[in-house]
Amino acid sequence: MSPTLETISLPHLPSSLPVHVALYRDVQNAPSLRQQLISGNSDFEYAFIDASMVLSRAHVSSAIFRAVNDYLNERLKSRNVHSEIVFSFSSTNNIADSFRKFGISDSTKDLLVVKVSVTPEITHDSVAAHLAQSIEGSPVPFNDETLWEIADVAKIKRAYKLGSLPSAPAGQVNGTGNSDKMRLENSIIGAIALRGAT
Amino acid sequence: MPEEAYIPPPLPGPFTNTTPPPTLLTQGAEAHLYKTIHLDSNTPAALKIRPSKPYRHPILDRRLTRQRILQEARCLVKLVREGVNVPAVLALDWEGQGGENGNGGAWLLMEWIEGPVVRVVFERWEAFIKASGASLSAEELQREEEKVRKLLRGIGSVVGGLHKAGVIHGDLTTSNLILRTEEVNAVPGESPTMQGDVVLIDFGLAGQSSSEEDRAVDLYVLERAFGSTHPRTEKFFEEVLEGYKDSYKGAAVTLKRLQDVRMRGRKRSMIG
């Protein structure tokens, strides 16, 4: 098992649909990765997420869960389950806007990559091998500490229109700072769950 | 009638994959509550399912189910944002499993709140007082009563926070309040701990409103529930209102309205 790619079997989702997640810092080739997406190169069918917009693992799981559940129920709003994962980070119904806010941009330095095994050919090894040769960056562990280091909390709050919530001081992981973080995280997860409800 | 084990309706959507399967906790007329696991770890979560009702017209059924589960989820998400103690919404599907096998059902996955419901805390306390109240010194009794008063003020302030956020619970009883506590298993016969945060649960009948009438009715329903379930704690109910009083700006007006509601009951207009 490559240590840089984590394969997760999300509770409640069929075990035939494992999810592969990798986190990179100091990514050098964001523009070319983004170009592959735009040109629709199917080898690059990934959810590429700007990791500065990600608060925690629970945040990521919620977006993945929402997208895969919609995929299983055949009600994707975008092209495939991977674009839907990017879209699922959003609290609004605007797909283009969700890509601008949460998707990879030319200036992305920290990148979260998600791939769902929608066909049996997509395995941990095949994804790991392809990412190793495609992404020019340093793999880091996909955990809450690293994500919190990367997160741009002010930007995240703006994206979810949660500007009025109290701010946990960066780096502080205990005391009231932690309960503020939980409140922000739970508010975001709720917004993801409610997207599209009219 | 032969005794048959109750078979709940089939689980909707993705929860047929869940291992171990969610366990049924309670079943009401509208919804089934299960205990299951969270998305990210081994922490527990609560799953509320509103099964479709086969006797309703399918279009009406879908619309009602969707409306009600969304109402509940919206209230919860709003309260989480406002920092009121309620379970967080983790995931939601208001359409449930559409089509194919027809066992649709909307569901709501929520944060698990650990602790006894306040009803149980008071029942334990009342049993304790009944059994050993006579042998307590005046001082001990006073300490016991102060414990209850403090919890009641805590209830008042969480209900105040709820109303401040513009939400009405609609079914405030001591069974819909959890005392979130790290209490080690309660010892029968001893006075239960009352340390912890009061968390509001079950927003199935909740709605958004800032009208003083609706708020007063919320309090009235709680007051009546107290009177009927906790005769020995009823006399302390004023402490709930004490805790409520300072929780938001309009609280005094609501309390004034509560007096009117007490006089006539919760149905405002019964004429014509």
From TrEMBL, chain A:
UniProt GO BP: tRNA threonylcarbamoyladenosine modification
Localization (cell): Nucleus
InterPro entries assigned to the protein according to its UniProt record, in alphabetical order: CGI121/TPRKB, CGI121/TPRKB_sf
Gene3D superfamilies: CGI121/TPRKB
UniProt entry keywords in alphabetical sequence: Kinase, Nucleus, Transferase, tRNA processing
Short name of any one Pfam family annotated for the protein: CGI-121
GO CC annotation terms, alphabetical: cytosol; EKC/KEOPS complex; nucleus
Stretches assigned to coiled coil: none
Protein name per UniProt: EKC/KEOPS complex subunit CGI121
Classification of source organism: Eukaryota, Fungi, Dikarya, Ascomycota, Pezizomycotina
UniProtKB/TrEMBL annotation, chain B:
Biological process (GO), any one: tRNA processing
Cited InterPro entries: Bud32, Kinase-like_dom_sf, Prot_kinase_dom, Tyr_kinase_AS
EC main group: transferase
Alphabetized UniProt keyword annotations: Activator, ATP-binding, Chromosome, Cytoplasm, Hydrolase, Kinase, Nucleotide-binding, Nucleus, Phosphoprotein, Serine/threonine-protein kinase, Telomere, Transcription, Transcription regulation, Transferase, tRNA processing
Enzyme Commission code(s) on record: 2.7.11.1
Keyword presence, Nucleus: yes
Highest taxon of the lineage: Eukaryota
Keyword Manganese: no
Domain Protein kinase intervals: 19-272
Reactions catalysed, as given in the entry: L-seryl-[protein] + ATP = O-phospho-L-seryl-[protein] + ADP + H(+); L-threonyl-[protein] + ATP = O-phospho-L-threonyl-[protein] + ADP + H(+)
GO cellular component, one term: cytosol
GO molecular function, one term: ATP binding
Locations listed in the record: Chromosome, Telomere; Cytoplasm; Nucleus
Broad class of where this protein is predominantly found: nucleus
Quaternary structure (record): Component of the EKC/KEOPS complex composed of at least BUD32, CGI121, GON7, KAE1 and PCC1; the whole complex dimerizes.
Family: Belongs to the protein kinase superfamily. BUD32 family.
Its biological purpose: Component of the EKC/KEOPS complex that is required for the formation of a threonylcarbamoyl group on adenosine at position 37 (t(6)A37) in tRNAs that read codons beginning with adenine. The complex is probably involved in the transfer of the threonylcarbamoyl moiety of threonylcarbamoyl-AMP (TC-AMP) to the N6 group of A37. BUD32 has ATPase activity in the context of the EKC/KEOPS complex and likely plays a supporting role to the catalytic subunit KAE1. The EKC/KEOPS complex also promotes both telomere uncapping and telomere elongation.
Name the record gives this protein: EKC/KEOPS complex subunit BUD32
Source species of the chain: Aspergillus bertholletiae
